[in-house]
Sequence to fold (891 residues):
Amino acid sequence: MDFNLERALADWRKAVVTQQAPEAEDLAELESGLLDRYDEYLIKGYAPAEAFAAARAHTLAVDSQGAPATTSTDHSRWSLLRNYLKLAGRNIRARRWYNLTNYVSLSLGIATAALALLYLTYETSYDEQLPDVARKYRVGINLRSQGYSLVSFADFNGTAAAGQQQQIQGFAAVPGVVQAVQFANFPEPVLGTYGNVELPLEHTLQTNTPAAFLDFFGVDLLVGDPNALSSDPNRVVLTQTTAARYFGPDWRSARVTGELLRIDTVDYTIAGVATDPPANSHFTYSLILHQPQLDYWGARTYLQLDPTVNPADVQRRIEADFGSINSRLATDELFGGVLLQPVRSIHLSSDLLYELKPPGNVNYLYIIGIIAVIILLLAISNYTNLSIVMNAGRAREIGMRKVFGATRTQITGQFLLEAILLSLLTLPVVLLCLWWIVPRFNLLMDVELTRNLLADLCLLTLLGALSVGIGVLAGSYPALLLAGTRVQGLFRGRAINDSGGRITTRKVIITLQFVLLIGLCNLTLFVNRQLRYIQDKDLGYRREGIVYVNINADSSRFATFRNELLRVPGVTAVGSGTPMGQTPFNQTTYKLAGTEQVFDDAHNIYLDYRAIDQLGIQTSIPNYVADPDRAPDRLVLINELLATRLQNRFQLTAAELIGQTILQEPEYVNQETGQVGFPYTVAGTFADLHMFSLRETIDPMFLTVYREPRFVYTASISFSEDRPRAELLTDLRRSYEEVGLSGPFAATFLTDNLTELYGDERRVSTLSTYFSLLAFLMAIVGLVALTAYLTTLKRKEIGIRMILGATPAEMLRRFNLEYVPLLLVAMGVTVPVAWWGVDRWLAGFAYRIPIEWWVFVLAVGVVALVSGIAVTVVTLRATRSVPARVLSRND
Fold:
């Protein structure tokens, strides 16, 4: 006769109810323990009836009568796991509100951690897609006191195609070099014409080593033959995005190869279409032009080295043979040698001039990583706190399981399984959050994280592992604590001890939350204060109401364009010259005539008198600025910093400095005339300008002022700020086209230029603000849970105090004061660390806010206020309970 488990269970329940009369929940828990033992005996090889009899004997001293004859049934360890899962699911459903809070907290924590991991992986994976990337290096040079990300040609822009080829072949001939590539990249838009379609093309790339370029950078052609690009000059490979712009989204079905594309005035034959360059590459391009002579003064030069050579040895060989590579540069006294920079390190480690993309900042990766860890720790601590709260009520259940044979390992495993199960159940919500957040995060951080989340197997595996790991971390403490509590304490309702004077885990968790919140609040406050300082600081020129337009025109065409612009409604003035708000560019050497000391830290800028007036730059020549028609055709001013340096160094008065001759580039000697350097007469001074970002110090500057410049690269246009930008740009474009200026119209606002200089800071500020709000929300949940737990433990004490006359205000003071020592400890821990971290971050700015003590006090005050409100709300609710009803409870 087969053993009937349901009938045996019914008999067992009847015996238990008769002898013990347990509550329904206790009976269910006893039954779960019985089934655990039953499954264990089955695994050991017992027959079903024998297994049930042994489990029953172990669980409760009730005689088993007349167990029928049995037949063996196939069981495995999975049956035990199924029982644990069923019990975990029942417990999760039974405490749905606590678990819903845990669920949301864990979902937010895991989503934040996953987002941070995606971002950190993206930022640290730049150029990793290149084949053999570990062997690939970029060549840079040291000139004066600056590093350059490209190598100049022997005759700069005048270097013929043969000279440019000789230079790259010289690099390729160095022992240890396997492959050498050079190219020039032009971010400025050019006009590309196919048939009747005219489009501006940015980031055009020219190379005179086309085959090596495609191979070195792993460029995949979707259409065309790679050899076609190098077979003849004036060939072009489009990216798929560029191809779609000209031939439509169905460009694959169109005839593309062999067609002519005109770039400005030169026709190129389309040799193929390549995949778009990866977003996480240190440069980008819209097309690749095969051009024998690069239209630039230098080239981006890259080398692939033999895997057996030491890069330092190759660098020394290049410097030793540099005379055969670039004889002019090798003999230049300002030349400081070459740099070999690993390609994979460029994005996060480069500080060279003229990078094609703004390099990343590793400090901000640390900041974002720390913020994510804070959010994750808050989620874990919240789970721990809430688990203690909701599982404290399961003390009798745990006690019954222990009495009837459950081991500590089984109970710990059950709690961990519940934590892991709840954590894994967050995955759909986490994926939904990432699906919504990632596109917005991409816009905020200017990155391209993957949007196809479900197709990314690595991401799904990572999320699964992260969820399991967080579940284990979050559930470990409650599981070990509750499983390790003695049976007597469990039946007395003391699953967790909360002695007021002891250092308990609960207090450590609260202190940790305070530390995290104070640290995050400090970070947010200081980042936002530094940004406000940047916005409000006087830069030495007017920043609002100015737009720059690239024109590349001679003086007569510029004059025509200026007259047209002055007819545009809202335009108040038009000038020309160097735009403000740039990234640093090359410096020049100089010395005072008749002296020996040579300096190498000055920048040259160029403005006409109208541009000086537009920008409101303070000068010692205000009469000329006010009336340019009476001003000299050309004069040179020096900034106050340089004037002060020269006065102090050479014992000159301000009046004596005016009229002095300064020689720029004194190392240069004109072979025909013997003239040393380029002489300039100091005509006056101008106020110091923050030409670059506030990360950079103000350097000495020469300002060459023109009345009518011979050639104008950029026009500066002042406009009334009440004129809508979109309308203004439309009118400017119309004037640009009516004058017939060459090239596509391109305009930028000065305020946008300045904003872009601090793009990383603004992104981190926005991100830290969002995450701070999220952290405070999660911390409030944790504090509410802890306070609810405390009031639960002390409800009888509260009831007695209320009966004896204690007021709600006294109870509020009592509960809030419990957190004060913890807050003070957290402040003592956080402030020194936060001070150090903020100081290191601010060290990246030459001009910065002071680190003031009151900001740390404000952060502590904000945390104390938020915590106090949370604790007050929960405590008030506890004090409103009817004391008599509370005291009548037996727990």
Observations:
- The chain is about 50% helix and 15% strand.
